[in-house]
């Protein structure tokens, strides 16, 4: 059945850190994947079931023509400006993260898309004063990025209630990844490992004690795949929080030093980064995700550190 009638998916932000790995997993599962992303991000090699289309997520006519031609059953909406880039240009952040998402939700209903996965963020919270933070903790973000993500979470629930779109959403905390994008203020732990591998000194943009809830990349990809595949009847929530471990700048420095004893670093807090990171949750109650669809992280800090070093070294060896 799978060969004759494969699932068709559209991944916006499909050439990004998470998008291309989600695509790899879906392609390996026999699905047909259309990746949409900005020009200049195209991969060199394409899988036979993979199509890459470049453009701007704000181009509604282009998106409509893609949905008309490729008829995806499921959309993974990952295209976004991240925390740092959103703060740098509020107008563009709203256009890309909020307005374009609204238009894509609208188009999804018009074009008969079944399922819509949206990547939200722990940055949709601020000044969390309980540990672990409960799932229903109020979302009053103090960043533009968080504000746009809350807006889309609410819109998704509206489209689900009003139009029956199967809207699903996960809120990711900090993600440790060898591909951590520059535009995220939460990318510094990943960049610290990279600096150590390159033999460069590193400046942590927060004080040593500042920390945040964290996941490793592989757990994020697993969560997107497993959650989206879960029978809707098992899901008691529109949106789930995920947590694997709490990570401070000092814990990152220690983990890097353990593997690279000559690693040189300093703590030089950057106000905008530190105020955002310190306002996001440290430990998150993710019991509902564990119960409803079997969420279970495989990576703690030690495993994450080993794996990111292995992946970064592979990347360095290939580019050397
Ligand atoms: N990695 C994390 O730490 C993290 C944490 C929480 C949430 N998220 C969310 O997960 C999703 C994927 O994040 P990521 O880590 O892969 O980041 P990423 O920056 O690698 O991916 C986002 C992609 O969106 C694309 N994009 C940006 N503007 C666009 C536009 N105007 N038109 C089309 N494409 C555009 C970018 O080119 C990029 O490939 C995002 O929605 C992000 O907000 C990520």
Question: What characteristics describe this protein?
Answer:
alpha/beta, three-stranded mixed beta sheet, binds nicotinamide-adenine-dinucleotide, Rossmann fold, 320 residues
Q: What this model shows, in words?
A:
This protein has 320 residues and is α/β, with parallel strands linked by helices. The protein has a domain at 8-174 and 217-242 and 283-299: Rossmann fold (3-Layer(aba) Sandwich), CATH 3.40.50.720. Helix content is 43%, strand content 18%. The chain contains 11 helices and 12 strands. The strands form 3 sheets. The chain has a 7-stranded parallel sheet, sandwiched between helices. The chain has a 3-stranded mixed sheet with strand order 7-9-11. The protein has a two-stranded parallel sheet with strand order 8-12. Helix 1 crosses helix 7, helix 4 runs parallel beside helix 5 (144-163) and helix 6 packs across helix 11. The model has no long low-confidence stretch (mean pLDDT 95). Bound molecules: nicotinamide-adenine-dinucleotide (NAD). Nicotinamide-adenine-dinucleotide binds at residues 13, 15-19, 37-38, 41, 56-58, 78-82, 96, 119, 121, 172, 174-175, 181, 183-184, 186.
């Amino acid at each position: 059945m799978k060969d004759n009638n494969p699932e068709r998916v559209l991944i916006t932000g499909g050439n990004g850190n998470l998008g291309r790995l989600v695509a790899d997993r879906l392609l390996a599962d026999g699905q047909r994947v259309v990746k949409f992303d900005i020009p200049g991000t195209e991969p060199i090699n394409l899988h036979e079931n993979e199509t890459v289309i470049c453009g701007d997520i704000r181009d509604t006519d282009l998106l409509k023509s893609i949905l008309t031609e490729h008829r995806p059953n499921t959309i993974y909406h990952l295209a976004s400006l991240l925390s740092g880039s959103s703060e740098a240009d509020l107008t563009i952040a709203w256009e890309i993260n909020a307005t374009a998402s609204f238009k894509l939700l609208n188009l999804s209903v018009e074009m008969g898309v079944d399922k819509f996965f949206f990547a939200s963020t722990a940055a949709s919270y601020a000044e969390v004063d309980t540990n672990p933070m409960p799932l229903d903790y109020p979302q009053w973000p103090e960043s533009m990025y968080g504000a746009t993500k809350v807006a889309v979470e609410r819109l998704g629930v509206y489209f689900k209630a009003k139009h029956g779109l199967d809207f699903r959403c996960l809120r990711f905390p900090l993600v440790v990844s060898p591909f951590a994008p520059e535009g995220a203020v939460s990318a510094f732990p990943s960049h610290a490992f990279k600096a150590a591998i390159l033999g460069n000194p590193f400046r942590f943009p927060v004080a040593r004690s500042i920390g945040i809830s964290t996941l490793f990349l592989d757990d994020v990809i697993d969560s997107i795949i497993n959650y989206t595949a879960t029978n809707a009847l098992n899901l008691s929530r529109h949106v789930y929080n995920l947590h694997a471990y709490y990570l401070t700048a000092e814990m990152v420095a220690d983990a890097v030093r353990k593997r690279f004893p000559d690693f040189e670093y300093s703590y030089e807090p950057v106000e905008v980064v530190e105020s955002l990171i310190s306002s996001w949750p440290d430990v998150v109650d993710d019991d509902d995700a564990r119960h409803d669809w079997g969420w279970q992280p495989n990576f703690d800090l030690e495993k994450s550190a080993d794996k990111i070093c292995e992946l970064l070294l592979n990347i360095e060896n290939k580019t050397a």
